[in-house]
Amino acid sequence: WSDEFFLQSFRVLWKNTVMYAFFSLHSIWTFIKSAKDAWFIVKNLLIWDKDWFGMWNNWRPNFEMILVLWNWRFLTKSKNKSNILKYRRISPQKALHPTEKVISLLEELIIEPDYNPKIILDPFAWSFTTAIACENTNRKWICIEKDEKYFEIGTNRLMK
Q: Which of these, 68, 95, 138, 160, is most buried using a 10 Å CB contact count?
């Protein structure tokens, strides 16, 4: 699915825009290959240090990777930032989705490009964290969620 996803993402992005793709170690090579085959340029690999390890046995993951892709030119407002982003993950007892992101992390990613994106697209909305981050940073947004359960959770969360 990743080949088609990255092809379509490249097609709909405006020139000089950025795409962030969150993923685990298990899909790193697939995502990078699919993104490059779709003509994306790999700008960077960010590490989200969650300050709290996840599931599994030994060497439990304490981070998530974020692939920074661009389709022409991409500059950031900050000129001296680390590629390690430290945001404590949401505890499983409080999370509305198993892979829920932290609002403040998404806010940082949204405001960091040197341009003001017209619309933020999240094709995997889950609990609509991106929409909330967009509202907090005065950005327009489009969220897509095919799972009715998470669509309802996310829209209820937005209403609050």
A: 68
Q: How many helices and strands, by DSSP H and E, does the chain display?
A: 5, 6
Q: How far is CA 41 from CA 34, 37, 84, 93, in A?
A: 11, 10, 20, 37
Residues contacting residue 11 through CB under 8 Å, at least 6 positions apart: none
CA 73 to chain centre: 19
3-state secondary structure of 31: helix
Q: What is the pTM of this model?
A: 0.90
Q: What is the pLDDT of residues 31-55, one digit of tens each?
A: 999 999 999 999 999 999 998 776 6
User: Most distant CA pair in the chain: distance in Å?
Assistant: 43
Q: What angle do CA 10, 81, 33 make, to 5 degrees?
A: 30
